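# nightly structure sweep
# worker-07 picked up a monomer target from the shared queue
# config: single-sequence mode, recycle default, output format = structure tokens
# input follows
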Amino acid sequence: MSNPAIHPVVLCGGSGTRLWPRSRAVMPKPFLPLVGDGTLFEATLARCPAEAGFADPIVVTGAAHLAHVEAQWPAGTGGETIVEPCARNTAAAIALAALRLPEEAIMLVCPSDHHIADAGAFQRAALTAARLAQDGWLVSFGIAATAPETGFGYLHRGEPIGDLGFKVARFVEKPDLERAKAFLADGGYAWNGGIFAFKVGTFLAELTAHRPDIARLAREAVAKGRAEGTRFHPDAESFAAIQSESVDYAVMENTARAAMVPADMGWSDIGNWDALLEARDRDAQGNSVRGKAELVDCRNVLVESDGPRVSAIGLDDVIIVIDGDEVLVTTRAGAQLVGKLGGAANQ
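# output follows
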């Protein structure tokens, strides 16, 4: 079987409050250079080049982020930006993109705010997922679980589908620590990273079967929408009437055609400052510094400063972030609570 062309669908939304104060509503984490020199959004596009079998991307974003998308999209490349009139979660966003593609097209849904260290492994997994999608499967990337994480959903691996992947036996919500440890020891569970491959027609048929109102209103929003150069604007009234629901709840947990492709590719959702420390290059003591800083007798410390010099002595497992006139200091364990800060919520 020949490899089908893969249409990347890049989702750009959210406010990234768990990486406050660097990530703000006006400049959320996809558009920040958090790992390496480029931004997470730029890296997402770069992982999907034409020479590896990818078609021009569709980016789905809101009006508030449109300027960032267009500023960071490499000049001279093709593709389309769908400008959502309001946020309605991933089922609606993916439906918009699907309705702008031919029914036989293979779409690869990629969040724009993840880090993937091994782009080659990502591309190989994408090609495998596309072949399964071509046969009518709705495919999730099963991210190789390396720790008993409680912040991710899990995929329970079922029967093999030839030599390409596996059926999904069940989707598991975020577990407590004991269940997460059991999943890791079992070896038959993978993290659900929110990366999917579908044939357009298959996805729209499943969406119509399980969430007919979302499908109907998305079709109406596209039919009444308007193109403006490389931008597409869905009809605001129709789109606003859509129920906000994730693609996991709307489709993936209901379909009988759920499959998974194992993917060991150095993935991180950069979900908080501790995850960012794990994703970055670190010195022999486990420290990572961006900006001016001097660390003495420190281990596993992250410093991110856009100006003031940071001096720290004798710290273990601490995060220090300075952005403008905002300063964050937390333990690594406390990093998961950053989004609950009043400053992060009212940025």
